[in-house]
Write a structure and sequence with these properties.
Distance between the termini: 42 Å
Helix content: 25-40%
Number of strands: 28
Strand order of the largest sheet: 19-20-22-21-23-24-25-26-28-27
Length: 925
């Protein structure tokens, strides 16, 4: 994530699971120790989720994080055995007696080798063991480091599975993968035939803890949302799905507000395709079907899911709260990203096989059963129901997107996207069952994105196991040997990779149409960032033009060849079935093809009103003509820089977050126009305001008093205050301590602090380590590290110019000022205000981004305590709402300040219908 996201302090309530991810490099205050022990606690958490309640531990240094994390978790029993060989047999005996999986844990080196006898016995006796051996990091392998052996394959074929876990990392995706890997390993150990599994768990130093592993785990999980490891539910190998599984899934569907069916690529199964379509129709669930799914061309699936996900993403509204996926992971990267944005919601994978098809590690439950009977029985158990408002909105957007794609493809008939649509149309016009064999790379993507979903009877086959383009033509020839005519749809490089298959394709009796979109090389790379990377010989290294006349080559093999230039001619030819091998060669221009795809997506964005970006951009502020007047204000011990703008009757003081600046509010002020007069101030050490160390000793109470004085100097005494993150906490302290200075509060992504003293102290130590990095690293490098935290991830569609401006503001910060702000204004330094919230009597608007689940929860808790608070949840926004959705935030703020409707004074809460792109909740009498 680029640091231009905008200054958030990633602070708040550690008890709610938020803490910065550890910075890489030096570890002056033990942040990396926290990372190691949080990581180890995540492994233990996943073991417990899989049913492991006992572990036999042998002492050692490299395994210290595991040992401490195991001992700290009261849910698991730890048996300490000094000798690994005996420990292995103790675990074996315990597993034999209980019938449950037992874990082993030891240090690196020959300690692990001593488990071999017990592992051999467990394998042959079918006893479930989870063998965890600590290891040194990759840089210490094969270089003579002590207690280091190659653990890959250490136990040979006597384990049911082996996983080398990655090193501890602050990445939410990597943490999710580790939790999934551990859960999968436990499942493998207990599956038939049961047996041992081996987990190689590496750690870098430091190996000594500095705090509670559970708190370290909470800090890690706070960045991804605490989620249970995948749970594997097995079913009988034969016969219908077990009744308990049917009841369980039916109940989940009944309880979901936004369920979604996803049919991924898999071999043809017409019964499954019909079952999924029937379930979607019966209870009104949107069905997303990959081009390689048997449910795609039956008429019930969304027709433009890739374009919707690409152009709307999270901006289309709340993500699904229940995903039921059958088959492999979808082809559409945009769809995968949309599903990943909803990480933490229920994600059920139905898969009869023992494999694991979940590369994004989203699964919360894996049902091991044949999907078609399960889906049929679930549908029979559910009462018919109309689509929800959410489902109707998705379907209406899909209809409009499909029409927009049609207009775009009509305007670009020579593009690969138009050819994909033409192929599906032509085969559908033939009637009956038609087999379409698609190459990986652009061919399957174009079918998925532009092939529609009409009930055409087309069955799509593709080599999507490893997703290679080699062998496509030969595979299509093999499919034709099954007796039905086959159409192969591929690009020029897939054809070149498999030219030799043309010999078999032209044998007597083979009925094969081959549609080749020839744009002169590997054009899929033109859609990737490498295409514009400086200093890269892109054409030679990636496009690799083949300079071959593919039509003439096909003729040389004896095929019937047609050279065409647009999709209309392709459709005309394919409507008539072939009686021998026929090659339809479509000459395409690579650059024009890329442009056609982008114009198609732009047409959808235009139809749905989502602007010019790859996803819905933030609403641009209207041009108000207001003059921004720069200010330098001396107040007490401080000198603040900032600006004022607008001419409206309402007065609003704005305070930014950590590493931000007053200029981060320029778009918001422009959107407010002349409805509000705004004063934005740079906090000390940010923008042009000197850091505290240049004006005297740090004094938080003095800073807050000086901010209030600066506001009075500018005529904003008793004004409303808007604060984001750290600035919000300061404004809240001002309202709690000096209510006469604050008429109203707007708190954006703000928490009252950390209530628990121990957690606050842990956060103070974390902030101190970050402060030291701020003092030692260049500002840009520090901001890159700080901005890499998952909480600060920006939603898709932020205009590049807005990102550039935001980064420039952040780079103006002073290292000493950033360090002082972390030490003196962070959630580890400021006292908690949770207990003071009932006494904050001013009207308050609590704002969070819909993509910021943690702070949406925190604002709900705050609203329940504050007597005159209401909430606004901004759709499509992350933590920095003022940067992501300035126009929509301005509308909410102006409405709040104008007093539209009486501001409530007490009582319960509720949610009003969406206003614009926000969901607003208010406290009502």
């Amino acid at each position: 994530m680029p640091p231009e996201q905008g200054g958030g302090d990633v602070g708040g309530d550690l008890s709610a699971g938020r803490s910065p991810v550890s910075p890489p490099g030096e570890d002056p205050s033990g942040i990396l120790a926290d990372l190691n022990f949080g990581w180890a606690a995540a492994v233990v958490d996943a073991l417990l989720g899989g049913g492991v309640t006992d572990v036999v531990l042998s002492p050692g240094s490299r395994s210290a994080p595991l040992a401490v994390a195991l001992a700290a978790d009261t849910r698991i029993r730890v048996i300490v055995e000094i000798d690994e060989r005996s420990g292995g047999y103790r675990a074996l005996g315990l597993a034999l007696a209980t019938g449950r999986p037992v874990a082993l844990a030891c240090t690196s080196g020959t300690a692990a080798a001593n488990y071999l006898p017990a592992v051999v016995e467990a394998s042959l006796a079918r006893v479930p063991l989870v063998v965890m051996t600590a290891d040194r990091p990759p840089e210490l392998q094969d270089c003579g480091a002590p207690q280091t052996v190659d653990q890959v394959g250490l136990f040979g074929g006597f384990v049911r599975g082996f996983r080398h876990l990655p090193l501890p990392s602050g990445s939410g995706a990597v943490l999710a993968s580790v939790r999934g890997a551990v859960a999968r390993s436990v499942s493998l150990a207990t599956a038939e035939p049961a047996g041992p599994v081996h987990l190689d768990v590496p750690f870098r130093e430091p190996l000594s803890p500095r705090g509670d592993p559970a708190s370290a785990l909470g800090a890690l999980l706070g960045e991804t949302g605490r989620m249970e490891p995948p749970v594997v539910v097995r079913a009988a190998e034969e016969g219908p799905a077990p009744g308990s599984m049917v009841a369980w899934l039916a109940e989940r569907i009944r309880g979901a507000e936004r369920p979604l069916l996803v049919a991924g690529p898999q071999p043809p199964d017409e019964g499954l395709g019909r079952a999924l379509t029937a379930l979607a129709d019966r209870v009104g669930i949107p069905l997303v079907a990959d081009a390689g799914s048997p449910a795609r061309f039956l008429g019930g699936a969304l027709a433009a899911h890739d374009a919707l996900a690409r152009c709307l993403g999270a901006e289309s509204g709340p993500s699904p709260d229940l995903v039921i996926r059958v088959g492999g992971f979808p082809t559409s990267k945009a769809l995968r990203s949309w599903l990943e944005a909803g990480r933490g919601h229920a994600h059920v994978v139905v898969d009869a096989a023992a494999g694991w098809r979940d590369p994004s590690f989203l699964a919360t439950t894996v049902l091991r059963t044949a999907p078609a009977p399960l889906v049929e029985e679930v549908a029979a158990r559910l009462d018919p129901a109309p689509p929800s408002a959410w489902a109707r909105g998705i379907r209406e957007a899909d209809r409009r997107a499909s029409e927009a794609l049609g207009r775009a493809l009509d305007a670009d008939p020579a593009s690969g996207a138009a050819v994909a649509r033409a192929v599906v149309r032509a085969l559908g016009a033939r009637g009956g069952r038609q087999v379409l064999f698609a190459a990986s790379s652009m061919a399957i993507r174009d079918l998925d994105g532009f092939g529609g979903s009409a009930a055409s009877g087309v069955r799509v086959l593709s080599n999507r196991g490893a997703n290679g383009i080699d062998g496509t033509l030969a595979s299509a020839v093999g499919a034709a040997a099954a007796g039905s005519p086959v159409t192969a749809y591929l690009g020029d490089l897939a054809f070149v990779h498999d030219i030799g298959a043309m010999r078999a394709a032209t044998e007597p009796g083979v009925r094969l149409d081959v549609v080749v979109v020839d744009d002169g090389g590997g054009s899929i790379f033109r859609y990737l960032p490498i295409a514009s990377a400086p200093g890269v010989d892109f054409e030679r290294l990636f496009v690799t033009p083949h300079r071959l006349d593919l039509a003439r080559i096909a003729e040389a093999f004896g095929a019937e060849v047609h050279r065409v230039g647009d999709a209309e001619r392709v459709e005309e030819l394919l409507r008539v079935p072939c009686h021998r091998t026929r090659v339809v060669h479509v000459a395409a221009d690579a650059a024009a093809n890329v442009g056609a795809h982008r114009r198609a997506w732009a047409e959808v964005r235009g139809e749905l009103g989502t602007g010019d970006g790859a996803a819905a951009p933030p609403s641009r502020p209207r041009r108000s003509g207001s003059v921004v007047e720069r200010r330098v204000i001396a107040a007490g011990a401080h000198r603040f820089t900032g600006w004022r703008a607008g001419r409206g009757p309402a007065r609003l003081v704005m305070l930014h977050g950590f590493a931000g600046g007053a200029d981060h509010f320029l778009d918001l002020a422009e959107a407010l126009g002349d409805r509000v007069t705004s004063l934005a101030l740079d906090l000390p050490g940010h923008g042009g305001s000197p850091p505290p160390d240049s004006v005297g000793e740090p004094d938080v109470a003095g800073l807050i008093a000086d901010l209030a004085e600066a506001a009075r100097v500018e005529g904003f005494g008793g004004a409303a205050w808007l604060g984001y993150s750290m600035g919000g906490r300061i404004a809240l302290h001002l309202a709690a301590g000096s209510p006469d200075d604050v008429a109203a509060l707007v708190l954006v992504g703000c928490s009252p602090g950390i209530a628990d003293p121990a957690e606050r102290e842990a956060r103070r130590r974390t902030d101190e380590a970050w402060a030291r990095l701020a003092e030692t690293l260049p500002v840009g490098e520090f901001l890159d590290r700080w901005g890499g935290q998952p909480l600060l991830e920006e939603p898709p569609g932020i205009p590049p110019e807005a990102r550039r401006r935001a980064r420039e503001v952040r780079l103006a910060a002073r290292p000493g000022g950033l360090a002082s702000a972390l030490r003196d204004l962070g959630p580890g330094a400021l006292p908690s205000l949770w207990g003071a919230l009932p006494d904050v009597a001013v009207p308050a608007l609590l704002v969070s981004g819909a993509r910021d689940a943690r702070y949406t929860e925190i604002t709900a808790r705050m609203a329940a305590l504050m007597p005159r608070a209401r909430r606004a949840i901004m759709e499509g926004a992350g933590h920095a709402v003022h940067l992501h959705r300035p126009g929509e935030l301005a509308a909410e703020v102006a409405d709040f300040l104008d007093g539209a409707g009486p501001l409530p004074t007490a009582g319960g809460g509720g949610e009003r219908p969406p206003v614009g792109r926000s969901r607003r909740e208010e406290r009502r009498p």
